[in-house]
Design brief:
By secondary structure, this protein is mainly alpha-helical. The protein is built from 26 helices and no strands. The longest helix has 17 residues.
């Protein structure tokens, strides 16, 4: 009986028209972008952002013409983040417009402070903009992260030396460029006494400079230790993580293990066996870390925890998220079974949509060809007019296009064979 089922499924697979499915998904997105409801367009834009292909990027760039300002800023920020530096002026024009809500202005400027971009300096000089008090701190942070010496003059024109916070920011700026008094100011706040809120501003420095103060505060409060771990972005922080792996605090240890996975340091992962704290949640992350770096025993241990009946459990979803990064582990069957079983519940609004989103996003990373016909049922242009269905439909269309992109050679081979 098994062989007949296999042949029957192969026959069904041969009848799938991948080109028709691809065309329908792009047509779905095209129609969605034309909807009057800005919430529908936003869901479409968020889904398109996940499709890392030339066509996906072209569709997403339609957001530059968005009539809704919130949606337009979302699209501008994400294109900027992908390397569209020329759009900095577009964002700054919105941020400094008198018609823009102050919260949106703060959000845009704070966002740009995360990047070492000097565009804001040219913008402030060219437009001769008077820095408003409400925007002063995020603007100062932008100037610090820009790593441009021209920023010093702008900061000195607006700084209030009686403000402790502004004095710290001035110290950060001077220290960034190895100028006198920079270290002297910062030592007062980051060695002699520690303020957790101020300590967070070290992330705007070049890492090797902030590392000096991280190393001086490794034995301070848990909050300080967690801030340090957050600021580690690559292998330059491995020695710091090694130190934290000796901690007795569970939260610090778990965050350190997650950071090892994030920066992809297999060598550092070999140190987790030295952790001498016994805790069930901590042991879970130790196993995840070992699995992530290819430990077969750890992988099997995690897979044994998974079945289609417990996928809705947050712990299992997290495990699947890590397993989905390991290409050799096909978790799509579990996800396919879940989506097949829950389709009617989806149509009747009897399922947690956030859970469905998490499942579909896992298929974007790890979905196989077999997932496409299941996801296709969730993609329907009629759902664009439903308050509860369009978000899942958009995400499903994105998942299909991502899976097809990753399996192009296989699909082309199938199409040629069928032709």
């Amino acid at each position: 009986m098994g062989i007949f089922n296999f042949l029957f499924n192969k026959k069904k697979e041969q009848n799938i028209d991948y080109q028709e499915i691809t065309d329908y998904c792009w047509s779905f997105f095209r129609e969605g972008l034309l909807k009057e409801n800005p919430k529908v367009r936003r869901e479409i834009e968020e889904a398109l952002l996940l499709i890392d292909t030339p066509q996906g990027k072209r569709f997403f760039s339609a957001g530059l013409q968005e009539p809704d300002l919130d949606n337009k800023v979302f699209c501008l920020k994400n294109i900027y983040k992908r390397g569209g530096w020329r759009l900095a002026e577009n964002l700054l024009n919105i941020a400094f417009s008198e018609e823009t809500d102050i919260n949106m202005s703060l959000d845009i400027i704070s966002f740009m402070a995360e990047f070492a971009d000097s565009s804001i300096i040219d913008f402030l000089i060219d437009k001769d903009i008077l820095i408003r008090n409400e925007l002063k701190i995020p603007i100062f942070l932008c100037l610090i992260s820009s790593r441009s010496k021209e920023a010093i003059n702008l900061l000195e024109k607006s700084i209030n030396n009686e403000s402790e916070l502004e004095k710290i920011l001035y110290g950060l700026m001077l220290y960034q460029f190895d100028l006198p008094d920079g270290r002297k100011i910062l030592d007062t706040f980051f060695i002699d006494k520690i303020n957790t809120e101020y300590f967070k501003f070290l992330k705007y420095l070049e890492f090797n400079k902030s590392k000096f103060y991280f190393e001086k505060n490794l034995d301070k409060s848990k909050e300080i230790q967690l801030i340090i771990i957050d600021n580690i972005k690559d292998n330059r922080g491995t020695e710091l993580i090694k130190t934290f792996l000796k901690s007795n605090d569970k939260e610090v240890l778990i965050k350190s293990i997650k950071k090892i996975i994030e920066i992809g340091s297999k060598r550092l992962s070999e140190n987790i066996d030295s952790i001498n704290v016994e805790d069930q949640e901590l042991n879970k992350y130790k196993t995840i870390c070992k699995a992530y770096f290819g430990d077969k025993e750890a992988i099997n241990k995690l897979l044994c925890k998974v079945n289609k009946n417990n996928i809705s459990d947050e712990n299992i979803l997290e495990i699947l998220g890590y397993l989905s990064d390991l290409q050799e582990n096909d978790i799509s069957n579990y996800l396919n079974d879940f989506l097949t079983e829950k389709y009617e519940s989806f149509l009747n609004n009897k399922i947690d949509l956030l859970l469905l989103k998490k499942i579909i996003k896992l298929l974007i990373k790890n979905g196989k060809i077999s997932s496409i016909p299941i996801l296709r049922k969730y993609v329907n242009k009629d759902f664009l007019d439903s308050n509860n269905l369009y978000s899942i439909s958009s995400l499903s269309a994105a998942a299909i296009l991502c899976i097809i992109e990753k399996n192009t050679s296989y699909i082309l081979k199938k199409n040629v064979k069928n032709y």
